[in-house]
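@channel anyone free to eyeball this complex?
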Amino acid sequence: MNKPTPTRDGFGEELVKIAKENEKILVVSADLEDATRAEYFKNAYPDRFFSVGIAEQDMVGMASGLTLQGFQCFVNSFAVFLTNRAYDMLRMDVCYNNCDVKVVCSHAGVTVGPDGASAQCLEDFALMRVLPNIKVICPCDVIEARKATRAISLEKGPMYLRTSRAPLPIVTKEEDTFIIGKANILKEGSDVSIIACGVMISEALSAAQKLQEQNINARVINLHTIKPLDEKTLIQAAKETGAIVTAEEHQIHGGMGSAIAELLAQKYPVPIEMIAVKDSFGESGTPEELLKRYHLKDVDIVQAVKQVLSRKK
Amino acid sequence: MNKNKPDITSLKKVAFQIRETILKMTNKAGSGHPGGSLSAVEILISLYAYKMKYDPKNPKWEGRDFLFISKGHTTPVVYAVLAQYGFFGKEELSTFRQLGSRLQGHVHQKVPGIEFNTGSLGHGLSVANGAALGAKLLKKDTKVFCLLGDGELQEGSNWEAAMTASHFKIDNICAIVDYNKVQENGPVEQIKSLEPLAKKWESFGWKAVEVDGHNFDEIFKALDDFDKCKDKPFVIIAHTIKGKGVSFMEGNRDWHGKAPNNEQLDKALKDLK
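replying in thread with the prediction:
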């Protein structure tokens, strides 16, 4: 039960459940439904599943057109192919027309592993969060992925959901609430706030434990929704802890950390350090090797906390 | 659906008025796209006067047919025709491209009768496929039309959509190519040829017909043929003239995205007669 599990599995499982409850749900796919787990839906509801072949632009356009007849459409692919290749369609068709399209991408971040840089999307948060009308969500474990899948379906309008290929440790509980736009505090603390999402949540929790041993009391915030930001929780963290470390499996530019910095620079400036990929492409390797190689581990967060505390007034 | 065949002489008068309106709208706005608007006048009139089901007082009527304007920059003709067929008052046309106006530079859903915002090329056909497939899933007898530019067909996304439509046997879609032979920087044939265009569509599994896109009878006949076409998508390649009706604009790329000034407007309006 507590076995590390890819969040893509949670998406695939929950999609089948909600599709049973809502017959207006369709899936349009571009030949990666096996990898994204949209295949579970295809097997359960073959008449509601449409593959346009390897044609991401067409997938997004057709899904948008289907919503004009009252359907809710899930599109899916690797994050690189959907957010990069089909960006104009996401901007024009989905967001500008405010269509009820759910954009679900697996294979983001360096934990994609051996395929290397071409498949390791490190810019999806940046690309998606600058588009009006869309909400951007990245669950941290399979339990949260199920809840996120249901939540994006229950709310009308464009949604972006990033799932993982790599198995992620279970860090949330079935009874935890999941509300889009409402961050969850996983550990209370008063010296510093570590704000993370996705795979970096378990690293953040591990870092907080290491810091506790050194009498540094870190708050850990699961920012599963990157847009819209939970401004209240973030400003409160800045006020109460006075220093922030952000941790994400994404480029350092334009992602979750940038979004938090944009907010706090305007509302309540405090020192911030960012754990993220530092303006480079990834490479082949195992997920664990790559997290180390790109300084995305708990020890890197610990070091960033010390750095930010030295800047704290 | 076949409406009573409209009187061609009166439609020619409507076409004349629409061309006047296109010229005046772009002149007033000081910008816009007259060339590709003047070429599509008869195509759009044919759809609204003869073929499409719609209720201008209830633009989102469930039983309507859909029209997607993939060449989303040709708003002058689209808005002029929508006003002509009662979707909104003609007086609003003078607000075209102004701050606060519903009549955005490129087509927008806030205009009654516009189904989808476009303006970046190569989007309409995929979206039209979706609307058409969705109607079939709901067992509605909706027809879906999609107006495409010729230069636009250089965008690869159209051909992704063309493959999809035939693969899924979407036979309630009718694409119409406004083949006016001129794009922003010159003749399509020189910039990147589309030929053999009908064969391209046919090889993608479509039924293709070619018409004189300024001849109502030919357009009507093609639209009737679309009604009879089963199990495959249908495309009308409408041979047109960019800037049609104004001698100094015809076939001239300079009028793709430029509005006539007052002097040019006077000259153009006289020329129309």
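from a first look: The longest strand of chain A covers residues 244-251.
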